[in-house]
Amino acid sequence: MAKSNKFGFAPLETEPPQRRERSVGPMGAAVREAAESLTDATEAKVEKRRQNAVDAEAFRTAQDEGRVLMSLELSQIATDDLPRDRMDLEAVAASDEMEELKASIRERGQKEPIEVYPGPDGSFQLKKGWRRFTALSQLLAETGDARFGTIIARIERGDDGRLARYIDMVEENVVREDLTFAEMAQVVITAAQDDAVGEPDPDALVARLYGSLHKMKKSYIRSFVFLLSQLGDVLPFPKAVSRNLGVDVSRAFKTQGAAQALREKLATCQTPEEQNKALVAFVDAAKTTPQTPKKKLEPREKFEFHVGSLKVTARRGECRIVSKDDFAAIPKSQLERAIKAFEEELRGGPSVRPL
Question: So which residues are the signal peptide here (predicted)?
Fold first, then answer.
Protein backbone atom coordinates (compact mmCIF):
# COMPACT_ATOMS: atom_id res chain seq x y z
CA MET A 1 0.00 0.00 0.00
CA ALA A 2 1.27 3.40 -0.82
CA LYS A 3 2.52 5.59 2.01
CA SER A 4 0.00 8.19 3.19
CA ASN A 5 0.81 11.83 3.29
CA LYS A 6 0.32 14.35 6.11
CA PHE A 7 -3.32 14.59 5.36
CA GLY A 8 -3.79 10.95 6.09
CA PHE A 9 -4.61 9.61 2.66
CA ALA A 10 -2.57 8.18 -0.08
CA PRO A 11 -2.93 8.67 -3.87
CA LEU A 12 -5.39 6.41 -5.55
CA GLU A 13 -3.88 3.43 -7.18
CA THR A 14 -5.15 3.12 -10.80
CA GLU A 15 -4.55 0.42 -13.33
CA PRO A 16 -2.90 1.45 -16.57
CA PRO A 17 -5.47 2.31 -19.28
CA GLN A 18 -6.31 -0.51 -21.56
CA ARG A 19 -6.63 0.18 -25.31
CA ARG A 20 -10.09 -0.46 -26.51
CA GLU A 21 -10.25 -2.46 -29.68
CA ARG A 22 -12.98 -1.27 -31.96
CA SER A 23 -14.01 -3.22 -34.99
CA VAL A 24 -15.71 -1.65 -38.00
CA GLY A 25 -19.29 -2.56 -38.26
CA PRO A 26 -21.20 -3.30 -41.45
CA MET A 27 -22.40 0.29 -41.76
CA GLY A 28 -18.93 1.70 -41.24
CA ALA A 29 -17.44 -0.68 -43.76
CA ALA A 30 -20.04 0.35 -46.29
CA VAL A 31 -19.36 4.04 -45.67
CA ARG A 32 -15.60 3.50 -45.95
CA GLU A 33 -15.96 1.60 -49.21
CA ALA A 34 -18.26 4.27 -50.57
CA ALA A 35 -15.74 6.98 -49.66
CA GLU A 36 -12.86 5.10 -51.29
CA SER A 37 -14.95 4.44 -54.37
CA LEU A 38 -15.94 8.10 -54.55
CA THR A 39 -12.27 9.14 -54.29
CA ASP A 40 -11.28 6.76 -57.09
CA ALA A 41 -14.18 7.90 -59.25
CA THR A 42 -13.30 11.55 -58.67
CA GLU A 43 -9.67 10.97 -59.67
CA ALA A 44 -10.80 9.06 -62.76
CA LYS A 45 -13.16 11.89 -63.71
CA VAL A 46 -10.43 14.47 -63.24
CA GLU A 47 -8.08 12.47 -65.46
CA LYS A 48 -10.82 11.98 -68.04
CA ARG A 49 -11.59 15.70 -68.08
CA ARG A 50 -7.90 16.46 -68.50
CA GLN A 51 -7.62 14.01 -71.41
CA ASN A 52 -10.78 15.42 -72.99
CA ALA A 53 -9.30 18.91 -72.81
CA VAL A 54 -6.10 17.68 -74.47
CA ASP A 55 -8.08 15.88 -77.18
CA ALA A 56 -10.29 18.91 -77.77
CA GLU A 57 -7.26 21.17 -78.14
CA ALA A 58 -5.65 18.70 -80.57
CA PHE A 59 -8.89 18.53 -82.57
CA ARG A 60 -9.18 22.31 -82.77
CA THR A 61 -5.56 22.55 -83.91
CA ALA A 62 -6.11 19.89 -86.57
CA GLN A 63 -9.30 21.60 -87.66
CA ASP A 64 -7.55 24.97 -87.96
CA GLU A 65 -4.81 23.34 -90.02
CA GLY A 66 -7.30 21.66 -92.36
CA ARG A 67 -6.48 18.10 -91.28
CA VAL A 68 -10.01 17.14 -90.23
CA LEU A 69 -12.28 15.37 -92.71
CA MET A 70 -15.98 16.17 -92.63
CA SER A 71 -19.02 14.96 -94.52
CA LEU A 72 -20.75 17.83 -96.36
CA GLU A 73 -23.89 18.02 -98.42
CA LEU A 74 -23.21 18.68 -102.10
CA SER A 75 -25.63 21.59 -101.87
CA GLN A 76 -23.31 23.25 -99.35
CA ILE A 77 -20.49 23.54 -101.91
CA ALA A 78 -20.16 26.14 -104.69
CA THR A 79 -17.64 26.17 -107.54
CA ASP A 80 -17.85 29.75 -108.82
CA ASP A 81 -15.18 31.55 -106.78
CA LEU A 82 -11.94 29.93 -107.97
CA PRO A 83 -11.44 29.42 -111.74
CA ARG A 84 -10.79 25.81 -112.69
CA ASP A 85 -7.46 24.65 -114.05
CA ARG A 86 -9.08 22.72 -116.89
CA MET A 87 -10.30 23.93 -120.26
CA ASP A 88 -13.62 22.72 -121.69
CA LEU A 89 -15.14 21.47 -118.45
CA GLU A 90 -18.24 20.21 -120.23
CA ALA A 91 -16.15 17.83 -122.33
CA VAL A 92 -14.37 16.54 -119.22
CA ALA A 93 -17.71 16.01 -117.45
CA ALA A 94 -18.96 13.90 -120.37
CA SER A 95 -15.71 11.98 -120.96
CA ASP A 96 -15.05 8.25 -120.60
CA GLU A 97 -12.69 9.03 -117.72
CA MET A 98 -15.58 10.59 -115.81
CA GLU A 99 -17.68 7.47 -116.36
CA GLU A 100 -14.81 5.35 -115.02
CA LEU A 101 -14.58 7.53 -111.92
CA LYS A 102 -18.34 7.27 -111.37
CA ALA A 103 -18.16 3.48 -111.65
CA SER A 104 -15.39 3.40 -109.05
CA ILE A 105 -17.33 5.59 -106.63
CA ARG A 106 -20.49 3.55 -107.17
CA GLU A 107 -18.65 0.34 -106.28
CA ARG A 108 -16.18 1.45 -103.62
CA GLY A 109 -17.29 4.90 -102.51
CA GLN A 110 -15.26 8.10 -102.42
CA LYS A 111 -11.68 7.28 -101.46
CA GLU A 112 -9.97 10.65 -101.74
CA PRO A 113 -11.37 13.78 -100.02
CA ILE A 114 -11.93 17.04 -101.81
CA GLU A 115 -10.72 20.35 -100.37
CA VAL A 116 -12.94 23.37 -99.74
CA TYR A 117 -12.65 26.76 -98.07
CA PRO A 118 -15.25 29.10 -96.55
CA GLY A 119 -16.70 31.42 -99.16
CA PRO A 120 -17.72 35.05 -98.62
CA ASP A 121 -21.43 34.14 -98.54
CA GLY A 122 -21.09 31.45 -95.88
CA SER A 123 -21.08 28.48 -98.26
CA PHE A 124 -18.04 26.34 -98.96
CA GLN A 125 -16.07 26.97 -102.15
CA LEU A 126 -14.36 24.12 -103.99
CA LYS A 127 -10.56 24.28 -104.09
CA LYS A 128 -9.47 20.77 -105.12
CA GLY A 129 -11.42 17.77 -106.39
CA TRP A 130 -13.64 19.09 -109.20
CA ARG A 131 -13.82 15.67 -110.89
CA ARG A 132 -14.91 13.90 -107.68
CA PHE A 133 -17.47 16.59 -106.94
CA THR A 134 -18.83 16.38 -110.51
CA ALA A 135 -18.94 12.57 -110.45
CA LEU A 136 -20.98 12.51 -107.22
CA SER A 137 -23.28 15.24 -108.52
CA GLN A 138 -23.96 13.21 -111.65
CA LEU A 139 -24.53 10.01 -109.68
CA LEU A 140 -27.02 11.78 -107.39
CA ALA A 141 -28.91 13.16 -110.39
CA GLU A 142 -28.92 9.80 -112.17
CA THR A 143 -29.85 7.52 -109.24
CA GLY A 144 -31.46 9.73 -106.62
CA ASP A 145 -29.51 7.68 -104.04
CA ALA A 146 -28.94 9.77 -100.91
CA ARG A 147 -25.49 8.25 -100.35
CA PHE A 148 -24.25 10.21 -103.36
CA GLY A 149 -25.58 13.46 -101.88
CA THR A 150 -22.71 13.89 -99.43
CA ILE A 151 -18.99 14.21 -100.02
CA ILE A 152 -15.95 13.81 -97.77
CA ALA A 153 -14.06 17.09 -97.59
CA ARG A 154 -11.07 18.67 -95.93
CA ILE A 155 -11.92 22.22 -94.88
CA GLU A 156 -9.40 25.02 -95.00
CA ARG A 157 -9.95 27.10 -91.89
CA GLY A 158 -7.09 29.59 -92.14
CA ASP A 159 -6.70 32.34 -94.72
CA ASP A 160 -4.15 30.79 -97.07
CA GLY A 161 -4.40 33.66 -99.55
CA ARG A 162 -5.60 33.69 -103.13
CA LEU A 163 -2.31 32.65 -104.72
CA ALA A 164 -1.92 29.69 -102.34
CA ARG A 165 -5.38 28.49 -103.38
CA TYR A 166 -4.38 28.61 -107.04
CA ILE A 167 -1.28 26.58 -106.23
CA ASP A 168 -3.29 24.01 -104.26
CA MET A 169 -5.75 23.71 -107.13
CA VAL A 170 -3.13 22.92 -109.79
CA GLU A 171 -0.78 20.96 -107.55
CA GLU A 172 -2.70 17.71 -107.66
CA ASN A 173 -3.11 17.58 -111.42
CA VAL A 174 0.45 18.72 -112.11
CA VAL A 175 1.85 15.90 -110.00
CA ARG A 176 -0.34 13.43 -111.91
CA GLU A 177 0.68 15.00 -115.24
CA ASP A 178 -3.00 15.46 -116.01
CA LEU A 179 -2.85 18.99 -117.39
CA THR A 180 -1.76 20.12 -120.85
CA PHE A 181 0.69 22.98 -121.25
CA ALA A 182 -2.13 25.14 -122.60
CA GLU A 183 -4.20 24.51 -119.46
CA MET A 184 -1.26 25.28 -117.18
CA ALA A 185 -0.60 28.49 -119.13
CA GLN A 186 -4.27 29.50 -118.91
CA VAL A 187 -4.14 29.20 -115.10
CA VAL A 188 -1.18 31.62 -115.12
CA ILE A 189 -3.02 34.11 -117.31
CA THR A 190 -6.18 33.90 -115.18
CA ALA A 191 -4.23 34.33 -111.95
CA ALA A 192 -2.38 37.35 -113.36
CA GLN A 193 -5.74 38.98 -114.09
CA ASP A 194 -7.03 38.22 -110.58
CA ASP A 195 -6.54 41.37 -108.48
CA ALA A 196 -6.64 39.34 -105.25
CA VAL A 197 -3.48 37.44 -106.27
CA GLY A 198 -1.44 40.62 -106.41
CA GLU A 199 0.97 39.53 -109.16
CA PRO A 200 0.10 40.87 -112.64
CA ASP A 201 3.28 39.56 -114.31
CA PRO A 202 2.58 36.11 -115.88
CA ASP A 203 6.29 35.26 -116.13
CA ALA A 204 6.72 35.75 -112.39
CA LEU A 205 3.59 33.73 -111.68
CA VAL A 206 4.93 30.73 -113.60
CA ALA A 207 7.72 30.37 -111.06
CA ARG A 208 5.33 30.80 -108.13
CA LEU A 209 2.51 28.55 -109.33
CA TYR A 210 4.76 25.81 -110.69
CA GLY A 211 7.81 26.21 -108.48
CA SER A 212 8.27 22.44 -108.05
CA LEU A 213 8.58 21.78 -111.80
CA HIS A 214 11.87 21.49 -113.69
CA LYS A 215 13.08 24.79 -115.17
CA MET A 216 12.70 23.42 -118.72
CA LYS A 217 9.05 22.60 -118.10
CA LYS A 218 8.50 26.08 -116.71
CA SER A 219 10.09 27.45 -119.89
CA TYR A 220 7.53 25.50 -121.95
CA ILE A 221 4.71 26.95 -119.83
CA ARG A 222 6.03 30.48 -120.45
CA SER A 223 6.01 29.78 -124.20
CA PHE A 224 2.35 28.75 -123.99
CA VAL A 225 1.54 31.80 -121.86
CA PHE A 226 2.93 33.97 -124.66
CA LEU A 227 1.11 31.90 -127.29
CA LEU A 228 -2.28 32.18 -125.56
CA SER A 229 -1.72 35.87 -124.93
CA GLN A 230 -1.31 36.32 -128.69
CA LEU A 231 -3.92 33.86 -129.95
CA GLY A 232 -6.13 32.91 -127.01
CA ASP A 233 -9.26 34.50 -128.46
CA VAL A 234 -8.93 32.84 -131.89
CA LEU A 235 -7.24 29.52 -131.01
CA PRO A 236 -10.17 27.06 -131.11
CA PHE A 237 -8.43 23.94 -129.75
CA PRO A 238 -5.58 25.01 -127.43
CA LYS A 239 -5.37 21.61 -125.72
CA ALA A 240 -4.55 20.02 -129.08
CA VAL A 241 -1.36 22.06 -129.49
CA SER A 242 1.61 19.83 -128.71
CA ARG A 243 4.52 21.01 -126.59
CA ASN A 244 6.99 21.36 -129.46
CA LEU A 245 4.48 23.04 -131.78
CA GLY A 246 3.50 25.53 -129.09
CA VAL A 247 7.12 26.42 -128.40
CA ASP A 248 7.86 26.80 -132.14
CA VAL A 249 4.82 29.03 -132.72
CA SER A 250 5.74 31.19 -129.72
CA ARG A 251 9.29 31.57 -131.03
CA ALA A 252 7.99 32.40 -134.51
CA PHE A 253 5.72 35.08 -133.08
CA LYS A 254 8.66 36.74 -131.39
CA THR A 255 10.47 36.99 -134.73
CA GLN A 256 7.48 37.46 -137.06
CA GLY A 257 5.30 39.79 -135.05
CA ALA A 258 1.49 39.76 -134.82
CA ALA A 259 0.80 37.79 -138.05
CA GLN A 260 -2.77 38.90 -138.76
CA ALA A 261 -3.07 36.30 -141.55
CA LEU A 262 -2.62 33.49 -139.01
CA ARG A 263 -5.33 34.90 -136.76
CA GLU A 264 -7.75 35.08 -139.68
CA LYS A 265 -6.90 31.50 -140.68
CA LEU A 266 -7.40 30.14 -137.17
CA ALA A 267 -10.79 31.80 -136.90
CA THR A 268 -12.04 29.53 -139.72
CA CYS A 269 -10.62 26.22 -138.41
CA GLN A 270 -13.23 23.60 -137.54
CA THR A 271 -11.02 20.76 -136.27
CA PRO A 272 -7.81 20.39 -134.24
CA GLU A 273 -6.08 19.07 -137.36
CA GLU A 274 -6.92 22.21 -139.35
CA GLN A 275 -5.74 24.38 -136.47
CA ASN A 276 -2.39 22.62 -136.09
CA LYS A 277 -1.86 22.61 -139.86
CA ALA A 278 -2.23 26.39 -139.86
CA LEU A 279 0.22 26.71 -136.98
CA VAL A 280 2.80 24.49 -138.70
CA ALA A 281 2.52 26.58 -141.87
CA PHE A 282 3.10 29.72 -139.82
CA VAL A 283 6.24 28.22 -138.26
CA ASP A 284 7.56 27.09 -141.66
CA ALA A 285 7.00 30.55 -143.11
CA ALA A 286 8.89 32.12 -140.22
CA LYS A 287 11.87 29.86 -140.91
CA THR A 288 12.10 31.01 -144.54
CA THR A 289 11.63 34.71 -143.80
CA PRO A 290 14.98 36.51 -143.92
CA GLN A 291 15.91 37.92 -140.56
CA THR A 292 17.11 41.47 -140.09
CA PRO A 293 20.83 41.23 -139.38
CA LYS A 294 21.85 42.42 -135.97
CA LYS A 295 23.91 45.55 -135.84
CA LYS A 296 27.53 44.65 -135.48
CA LEU A 297 29.08 46.04 -132.35
CA GLU A 298 32.18 48.12 -132.80
CA PRO A 299 35.11 46.40 -131.08
CA ARG A 300 36.60 48.20 -128.13
CA GLU A 301 40.33 48.53 -127.73
CA LYS A 302 40.28 47.45 -124.08
CA PHE A 303 37.87 46.94 -121.18
CA GLU A 304 38.06 45.66 -117.61
CA PHE A 305 35.64 43.94 -115.24
CA HIS A 306 35.60 41.86 -112.04
CA VAL A 307 34.43 38.30 -111.45
CA GLY A 308 34.38 37.72 -107.71
CA SER A 309 37.86 38.55 -106.48
CA LEU A 310 39.34 38.29 -109.99
CA LYS A 311 40.15 41.35 -112.09
CA VAL A 312 39.95 40.67 -115.83
CA THR A 313 41.47 42.88 -118.50
CA ALA A 314 40.48 42.08 -122.09
CA ARG A 315 42.02 43.41 -125.28
CA ARG A 316 42.69 42.08 -128.76
CA GLY A 317 44.55 38.76 -128.49
CA GLU A 318 44.94 39.01 -124.73
CA CYS A 319 42.89 38.24 -121.62
CA ARG A 320 44.67 39.04 -118.36
CA ILE A 321 43.46 37.71 -115.01
CA VAL A 322 44.80 39.28 -111.80
CA SER A 323 44.20 37.52 -108.49
CA LYS A 324 45.65 37.12 -105.01
CA ASP A 325 45.93 33.39 -105.66
CA ASP A 326 49.33 31.82 -106.29
CA PHE A 327 48.70 30.21 -109.66
CA ALA A 328 52.12 28.57 -109.54
CA ALA A 329 51.00 26.58 -106.51
CA ILE A 330 47.92 25.22 -108.27
CA PRO A 331 48.42 21.77 -109.89
CA LYS A 332 48.99 21.97 -113.61
CA SER A 333 46.16 19.53 -114.38
CA GLN A 334 43.67 21.73 -112.48
CA LEU A 335 44.80 24.83 -114.36
CA GLU A 336 44.52 22.97 -117.68
CA ARG A 337 40.93 21.99 -116.89
CA ALA A 338 40.06 25.57 -115.98
CA ILE A 339 41.64 26.98 -119.15
CA LYS A 340 39.96 24.29 -121.28
CA ALA A 341 36.55 25.15 -119.82
CA PHE A 342 37.28 28.83 -120.48
CA GLU A 343 38.13 28.11 -124.12
CA GLU A 344 35.07 25.90 -124.64
CA GLU A 345 32.81 28.63 -123.28
CA LEU A 346 34.39 31.16 -125.64
CA ARG A 347 33.86 28.87 -128.65
CA GLY A 348 30.23 28.12 -127.72
CA GLY A 349 30.79 24.42 -126.97
CA PRO A 350 33.43 21.74 -126.43
CA SER A 351 36.51 22.49 -128.44
CA VAL A 352 37.36 20.10 -131.28
CA ARG A 353 41.01 19.30 -131.65
CA PRO A 354 42.50 17.79 -134.82
CA LEU A 355 43.50 14.15 -134.52
Answer: none
Nearest CA-CA partner of 133 in 213, 194, 175, 75: 75
Torsions phi, psi of 223, nearest 5? Answer: -65, -40
Report the distance separating Cα 209 and Cα 179, nearest Å.
14
**Could you tell me which of 36, 124, 39, 111 has the C-alpha nearest to residue 80?**
124
Confidence of residue 246 (pLDDT cuts 50, 70, 90): very high
Quickly state the pLDDT bin for 17 (edges 50, 70, 90).
low
DSSP state, residue 161: -
Q: Confirm if 66 and 157 have CB atoms less than 8 A apart.
A: yes
pLDDT band at 119 (very low <50, low <70, confident <90, very high): confident
Asked if residue 312 belongs to a domain, the reply is no
Give residue 175's Cα distance to chain centre.
10
| Distance between CA atoms of residues 210 and 196, nearest Å | 19
* CA separation, residue 228 to residues 189, 195, 314 (Å): 9, 20, 44
pTM of the model: 0.57
Whether residue 108 sits in one domain with residue 189? no
C-beta of residue 114 within 8 angstroms of C-beta of residue 126: yes
Are residues 170 and 152 part of one domain? no
Residue 4 has pLDDT above 50, yes or no: yes
Using pLDDT thresholds of 50, 70 and 90, give the confidence band for residue 299.
low
Q: Residue 131 falls within a domain, yes or no?
A: yes
